[in-house]
């Protein structure tokens, strides 16, 4: 009974600390995020949340774990400094989730369980906020809550009578009346904006789930009393797997031979078919083929599979995976050939990244079989590879890379068959400005293409410089572009000044 009495005030103080931190973070989010374009403000909110998690971890006497979680959250939030995008926000949320789990030592020992743990942490967030908010009422009955309540009550009379006196003084003194009228009451109504209230609610639910992390309970499955040895079924047993691998390797060998001949060897294709058409028709179907092949290998070489220890089957599996890796590399080469003819787009770049991930996944399947690891190990290593690729994508200005690639492989610079698509470069946004600066000097002055390129560049410069000049919108990527405009200008265009910066109109 005495232990419960001691535990209640301790839990109440923890709730009050978490509640106070949540209120402060909601207020900070309102100041930095509401009605403002995303920028460095998103990173500052993430950093403040990570600091709050660290402080509460210190109060729980788990400071070392809190520091490790803070470092993880900081590293995964760094892409927000480069540019606040959906991908960088997702990575930051992952980092904050890891920090919250580390603060209470709920990080799973096996990495493959991390997605499940994060879902069990975030899914019940709205219910947990309401449940813990109800638990705050009895917390006020304890000493810490009573002091806070008495402090608030003590301000009721001074504020109430002070408002009455201020009203009377305003009626008697025109100067005071003018001063009070300048305090527009419309500001109070702005606080009731539905979108603002929605922001408060979303931030409060997310922050509370991070400051008071608890996992959603799951039902325990009863294990069978007797483990039945796996049977070698007739339709997918060792014989069926062996025959399947023989057939599949033979089919894949035909495709591999054709790719080695026409793609990698550079031999001319039959009349009426160019390399671009050959590449375009095969890039995406071959990736689907590789995915199906990987799924087949996982099922065939699953744990306790009768074919897992068969040397012949293992050798055929190694050959099958090797052919699939070559298939992915061929698909990437097909995509490259197609891009050289038609241009690089965001979707084609994403497809190339996806093909690389599939190839990495196949290599990891091979490593899993060779090292006799579990499917959980395979999931964990694939998650690490996916996170690394997403992190690199968030840190790089892919739009600038696409624009530069299309300009450098255009007819205007290399004499290739494809002319640069100015309108697509326009759609890429201000990141394409350096590519335009490389293109414009190579164009013939006075031509329609030259005029269009200069006009589009001027519009992109206006988009960059005439946007909201708020420090909360700042990003490292945008700052680099502005610094670039200070240092570079198209020689053929008359320079003008915008806020002290030399630009080209």
Structure description:
The protein has helices at residues 2-33, 40-59, 63-77, 79-82, 86-103, 114-122, 125-139, 143-153, 156-172, 174-182, 186-190, 194-211, 238-264, 275-300, 311-342, 346-370, 375-395, 398-408, 411-414, 422-427, 433-439, 448-465, 476-487, and strands spanning 495-498, 501-504. The protein has 23 helices and two strands. Helix content is 72%, strand content 2%. The chain is flat, with a radius of gyration of 31 Å. It has three domains: 2-211, no CATH class; 238-395, no CATH class; 400-504, no CATH class. A two-stranded antiparallel sheet has the order 1-2. With 505 residues, it is mainly α. Mean pLDDT is 78; it is low at 1-5, 225-229 and 490-505. The chain crosses the membrane at residues 39-58, 65-81, 87-107, 148-170, 197-215, 235-258, 278-300, 312-333, 353-371, 383-403. Keywords: Membrane, Transmembrane, Transmembrane helix. Pfam families: DUF4153.
């Amino acid at each position: 009974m005495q232990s419960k009495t001691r535990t209640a005030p301790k839990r109440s103080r923890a709730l009050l600390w978490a509640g106070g931190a949540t209120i402060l973070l909601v207020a900070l989010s309102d100041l930095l995020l509401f009605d403002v374009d995303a920028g460095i403000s998103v990173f500052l909110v993430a950093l403040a949340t990570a600091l709050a998690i660290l402080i509460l971890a210190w109060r729980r006497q788990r400071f070392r774990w809190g520091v490790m979680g803070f470092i993880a959250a900081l590293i995964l939030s760094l892409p927000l400094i480069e540019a606040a995008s959906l991908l960088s926000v997702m990575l930051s949320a992952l980092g904050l989730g890891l920090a919250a789990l580390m603060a209470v030592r709920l990080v799973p020992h096996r990495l493959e369980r991390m997605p499940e743990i994060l879902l069990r942490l975030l899914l019940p967030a709205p219910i947990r906020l309401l449940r813990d908010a109800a638990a705050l009422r009895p917390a006020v009955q304890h000493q810490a809550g009573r002091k806070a309540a008495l402090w608030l009550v003590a301000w009721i009379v001074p504020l109430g009578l002070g408002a009455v006196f201020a009203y009377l003084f305003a009626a008697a003194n025109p100067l005071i009346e003018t001063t009070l009228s300048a305090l527009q009451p419309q500001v109070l109504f702005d606080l009731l904006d539905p979108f603002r209230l929605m922001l408060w609610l979303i931030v409060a639910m997310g922050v509370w789930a991070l400051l008071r992390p608890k996992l959603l309970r799951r039902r325990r499955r009863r294990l069978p009393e007797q483990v039945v040895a796996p049977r070698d079924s007739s339709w997918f047993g060792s014989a069926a797997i062996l025959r399947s691998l023989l057939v599949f390797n033979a089919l894949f060998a035909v495709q591999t031979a054709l790719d080695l001949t026409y793609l990698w060897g550079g031999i001319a294709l039959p009349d009426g078919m160019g390399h671009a058409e050959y590449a375009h028709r095969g890039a995406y179907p071959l990736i689907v083929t590789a995915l199906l092949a990987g799924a087949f290998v996982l099922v065939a070489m699953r744990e306790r599979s009768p074919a897992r220890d068969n040397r012949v089957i293992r050798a055929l599996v190694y050959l099958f995976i090797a052919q699939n890796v070559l298939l992915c590399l061929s698909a990437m080469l097909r995509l490259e050939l197609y891009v050289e003819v038609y241009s690089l787009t965001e979707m084609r770049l994403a497809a190339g990244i996806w093909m690389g991930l599939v190839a990495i996944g196949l290599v990891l399947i091979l490593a899993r079989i060779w090292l006799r690891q579990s499917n959980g190990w395979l999931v964990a290593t694939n998650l690490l590879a996916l996170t690394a690729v997403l992190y690199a994508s968030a840190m790089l200005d892919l739009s600038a890379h696409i624009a530069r690639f299309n300009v450098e492989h255009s007819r205007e610079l290399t004499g290739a068959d494809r002319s640069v698509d100015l309108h697509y470069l326009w759609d890429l946004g201000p990141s394409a400005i350096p590519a335009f600066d490389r293109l414009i000097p190579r164009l013939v002055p006075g031509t329609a293409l030259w005029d269009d390129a200069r006009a589009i560049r001027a519009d992109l410069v206006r988009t960059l410089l005439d946007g909201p000049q708020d420090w909360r919108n700042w990003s490292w990527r945008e700052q680099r572009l502005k610094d670039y405009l200070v240092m570079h200008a198209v020689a053929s265009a008359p320079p003008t000044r915008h806020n002290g910066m030399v630009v080209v109109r």
